[in-house]
């Protein structure tokens, strides 16, 4: 799980599905009001997934803000 505003931080490392309580705890730390720059979060996800040893990989993006579409090249890299 990666949190982002103007920067990105891995708040839960890439792993098999962790316990729901761990996910809920990290989700509860998010707050609104910061900036919304999706690119750093997608970049960190792309870097993590590049080295992941998994057949199927997913990225779920959730945001409370509106951001410029400045990350299309990273999405292409993930395909």
Question: What are the salient characteristics of this protein?
Answer:
79 residues, flat, mainly alpha, two-stranded antiparallel sheet
How would you describe what is shown here?
The protein has 79 residues and is mostly helical. 37% of the residues lie in helices and 8% in strands. The protein contains 3 helices and 2 strands; from the N terminus they run E-E-H-H-H. Helix 2 runs parallel beside helix 3 (72-78). The longest helix has 13 residues, at 38-50. The protein is flat. The two termini are 19 Å apart.
Proportion of beta-strand residues: 5-15%
| Gyration radius, rounded | 13 Å
Distance between the termini: 19 Å
Mean pLDDT value:
87
The coarse silhouette is flat
Strand order of the largest sheet: 1-2
What structural class do you assign from the helix and strand content? mainly alpha
Q: Specify the biggest β-sheet.
A: 2 strands, antiparallel
Number of helices: 3
Q: What quaternary form is this?
A: single chain
Report the uncertain regions: none
Number of strands: 2
Provide the helix percentage.
Answer: 25-40%
Helix-strand pattern, N to C? Answer: EEHHH
What is this entry, summarized?
By secondary structure, the chain is mostly helical.
